[in-house]
Amino acid sequence: MSSFRSEPFLWIHLAGIAALPILLQIAWIGLAVGDPLPGYWLELIFLLVIAIAPISWMQWYKPFDIFSLLFVAQRPELLTPEQLKILSLFKRPKHRFITVLGTVLMIAGLWKIYQIAPIATPAAAFLPQWRIIGLLIASLAFLASHLFLQVPLSVLGVLFTKNEQWEKTEPIPVSNIAQSFTLLGIRVRKILPTLVS
After folding, report:
1. pTM greater than 0.85 (yes/no)
2. How far, in Å, CA of 76 to CA of 44, rounded?
3. Are 82 and 4 in contact (CB under 8 A)?
4. How far apart are CA 145 and CA 23, in angstroms?
């Protein structure tokens, strides 16, 4: 019997961490556009509300369903018992600790990037120098970067599950998936080809 760690969706979403540096760089350039508002804390609150809070809330209450890619999601009723057990692992208390850790890392990253944003002014010179445009670019980039941090972190939490814990894990009922997980995209019968060992 193959290990649950060989599930392709786990590795695909773990690889998403590679997008994090690019997205943070886009956010950095966005924050270099225009002159900061007189009350810098207003900009930070805006970024926290738009970019940090939604992903933290999602991962805390309704974690991202990893059996999806881009704009398609595998229909819950077609998941295998092993995949349903994997989803159960995302609902452990450990997952919420990981969510808090990811949120703290993103807030620290936001604060640091905000401080060094003026260094990126030459790179942002090609954009219209309206602060609102820069904030919108930064907020969208931070939102995406937060997602591409939280999901791989939660996947790592699953991959480091001990075999004994895996054996004790019960599959999540299919009827609970829609209310327990965030499913994005069109529901399809299959996304990845079946791997034959």
Report:
1. yes
2. 38
3. yes
4. 6
**104 Cβ partners below 8 Å, 6+ apart?**
none
Ordered strands of the 72-74 beta sheet: 68-69, 72-74, 186-188
Scan for tokens 């990253």, then name that residue: 109
Provide the residue ranges of all domains of the chain, joining segments of one domain with +.
Answer: 4-186
Would you say residue 121 has pLDDT above 70?
yes
Residue 84 CB partners (closer than 8 Å, separation 6+)? 171, 172, 173, 174
Is the four-CA dihedral 68, 72, 77, 78 of positive or negative sign?
A: negative
User: Do the strands 72-74 and 68-69 form a parallel or antiparallel pair, or are they unpaired?
Assistant: antiparallel
User: CA torsion angle for 62, 58, 187, 166 (degrees, to 10)?
Assistant: -50
Question: Which residue type does 11 have?
Answer: W
Kindly report, residue by residue over 95-115, the tens digit of the pLDDT.
999 999 999 999 999 999 999
